[in-house]
């Protein structure tokens, strides 16, 4: 393998030939399944942990749940580079805004910052983001900013390539007024189902609960994920 | 400035597809098949009450998805071939035979055809059986979903399916699955058709749109 890599580098840097594996030329994408659920007093967010370059899994323990502020997170799907860059920019803008305000920022503000960036650069970006968090004015909130740059608040939202497979599960199993533990259980199940069916989702399930008190993170390892009987 | 895109409506030139959601499930003593009823040509719904559960024999049905023309043609050909076959053997054909006939056509013409049929029925040798024939393979499964709407309900069926469900449980499972898929997939909708096949025969049922189960956002 080392011989192939060095032979590749010594040749013309722009040629694409067999000395460099195919995946080294593919874009890095967070294939992914992400979701967020509101409950009375906060939100629960969840994501899988697989990052792919083509068919190669570049990172099998990715953390797609990114803090934007103390009580505001975003779940990233689409191009890993694009979503990291946008999240970094919004983190900066929100931190500055919060200092100006001398107050913790609103989740809606964070969501609108994401929306403005994703809409302005919609042709260049490939980013589907779910913004979720808690603030004093409106409690737990989930805002989805899919590709294209629209924004809508939803009590429950799923995103990423794996989300297609769990719309039916989400519609039938979500009930308004669930507790934090019920939301965590619902997210774990939904992520497990999506990871089972979507080749671009997998690894471990990362979850987080955000409330007034703060943040509580959990990881459900592969072998601990719920299994379903038809296989 | 154009007042009209063209003098001819779009749906006259678009391919007619049964966008669709189809499902079939085995229970002890028979099968239940279900489908939506939407047929689209581009953005237009050209038939909102199409029954996509097609009879292949008295106790063998198939569920159609993909190109409407291709799927209907395959079903009609197999219906004919099964009639001949059942006369030759002198008794009701096996479900596996029907599935094999569908598979043979799907595989031989796989480059030209774009249709996926799920074959399900009852015979005295094997009881209730469900076969998938996607892309020309042949595989028996305890249950199967297909069509564009099926993507949205893989999670739901994986979570809800249990072995050894009763006939009524299976019917409810099919209705719930169709309803969820129809509310998420733009190419599925209309009414839900159900067919329950057991030793006694096949029973067809139609559930209107407003009688389907609804979920938290409806």
Layout of strands and helices, then pairs:
The complex is a heterodimer of chains A (231) and B (218).
Chain A: H1 2-10, E1 28-30, E2 34-39, E3 42-47, E4 51-53, E5 56-59, E6 65-69, E7 72-79, H2 80-101, H3 107-120, E8 127-135, E9 139-145, E10 152-153, E11 156-159, H4 167-173, H5 180-197, E12 205-211, E13 214-220
Antiparallel strand pairs in A: 1-4, 1-7, 2-3, 2-11, 3-12, 4-5, 6-7, 7-8, 8-9, 9-10, 12-13
Helix pairs in contact in A: 2-3
Chain B: E1 16-18, E2 22-27, E3 30-35, E4 39-41, E5 44-47, E6 53-57, E7 60-67, H1 68-89, H2 95-108, E8 115-123, E9 127-132, E10 139-140, E11 143-146, H3 154-160, H4 167-184, E12 192-198, E13 201-207
Antiparallel strand pairs in B: 1-4, 1-7, 2-3, 2-11, 3-12, 4-5, 6-7, 7-8, 8-9, 9-10, 12-13
Helix pairs in contact in B: 1-2
Secondary structure: helix percent of chain B:
25-40%
**Mean pLDDT over the full residue set of chain B:** 93
Number of strands of chain B: 13
| Overall SS class of chain B | alpha+beta
Work out the helix count of chain B.
4
**Which two chains share the most extensive interface?**
A-B, 22 and 24 residues
Order of helices and strands of chain B: EEEEEEEHHEEEEHHEE
Q: What's the helix count of chain A?
A: 5
Largest sheet of chain A: 8 strands, antiparallel
Query: What's the story with the biggest beta sheet of chain B?
Result: 8 strands, antiparallel
Give the N-terminus to C-terminus distance of chain A in angstroms: 37 Å
How far apart the termini of chain B lie comes to 41 Å
Seen as an oligomer or otherwise, the chain set is: heterodimer
Tell me, briefly, the overall form of chain A: globular
Helix percentage range of chain A: 25-40%
């Amino acid at each position: 393998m080392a011989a192939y890599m060095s032979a590749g580098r010594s040749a013309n840097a722009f040629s694409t030939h067999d000395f460099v594996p195919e995946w080294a030329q593919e874009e890095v994408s967070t294939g992914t399944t992400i979701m967020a659920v509101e409950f009375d007093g906060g939100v629960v967010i969840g994501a899988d942990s697989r990052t792919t370059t083509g068919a190669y899994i570049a990172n099998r323990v990715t953390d797609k749940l990114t803090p934007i502020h103390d009580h505001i997170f975003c779940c990233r799907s689409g191009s890993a580079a694009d979503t990291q860059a946008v999240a970094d920019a919004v983190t900066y803008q929100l931190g500055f805004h919060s200092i100006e305000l001398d107050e913790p920022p609103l989740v809606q503000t964070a969501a609108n910052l994401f929306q403005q960036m994703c809409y302005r650069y919609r042709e260049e970006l490939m980013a589907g983001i779910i913004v979720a968090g808690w603030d004093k004015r409106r409690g737990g909130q989930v805002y989805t900013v899919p590709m294209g740059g629209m924004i809508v608040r939803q009590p429950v939202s799923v995103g990423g390539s794996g989300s297609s497979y769990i719309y039916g599960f989400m519609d039938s199993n979500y009930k308004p007024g669930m507790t934090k533990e019920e939301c965590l259980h619902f997210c774990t199940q939904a992520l497990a189902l999506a990871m089972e069916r979507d080749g671009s989702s997998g690894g471990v399930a990362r979850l987080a609960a955000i409330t007034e008190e703060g943040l509580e993170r959990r990881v459900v390892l592969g072998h601990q994920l719920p299994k379903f009987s038809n296989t | 400035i154009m007042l009209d895109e063209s003098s001819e409506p779009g749906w006259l030139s678009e391919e007619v597809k049964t966008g669709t959601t189809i499902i079939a499930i085995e229970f002890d003593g028979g099968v239940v098949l279900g489908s939506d009823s939407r047929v689209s040509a581009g953005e237009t719904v050209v038939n909102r009450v199409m029954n996509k559960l097609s009879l292949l024999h008295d106790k063998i049905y198939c569920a159609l998805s993909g190109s409407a023309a291709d799927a209907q043609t395959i079903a009609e050909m197999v219906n004919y071939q099964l009639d001949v076959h059942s006369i030759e053997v002198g008794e009701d054909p096996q479900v596996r035979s029907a599935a094999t006939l569908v598979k043979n056509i799907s595989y031989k013409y796989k480059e030209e055809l774009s249709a996926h049929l799920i074959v399900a029925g009852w015979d005295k040798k094997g009881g209730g059986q469900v076969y998938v024939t996607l892309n020309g393979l042949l595989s028996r499964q305890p249950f199967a979903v297909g069509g564009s709407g099926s993507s949205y309900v893989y999670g739901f069926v994986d979570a809800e399916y249990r072995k050894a469900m009763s006939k009524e449980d299976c019917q409810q499972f099919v209705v719930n699955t169709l309803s969820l898929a129809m509310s998420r997939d733009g190419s599925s909708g209309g009414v839900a058709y159900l067919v329950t096949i057991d030793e006694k025969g096949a029973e067809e049922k139609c559930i209107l749109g407003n009688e389907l189960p609804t979920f938290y956002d409806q």
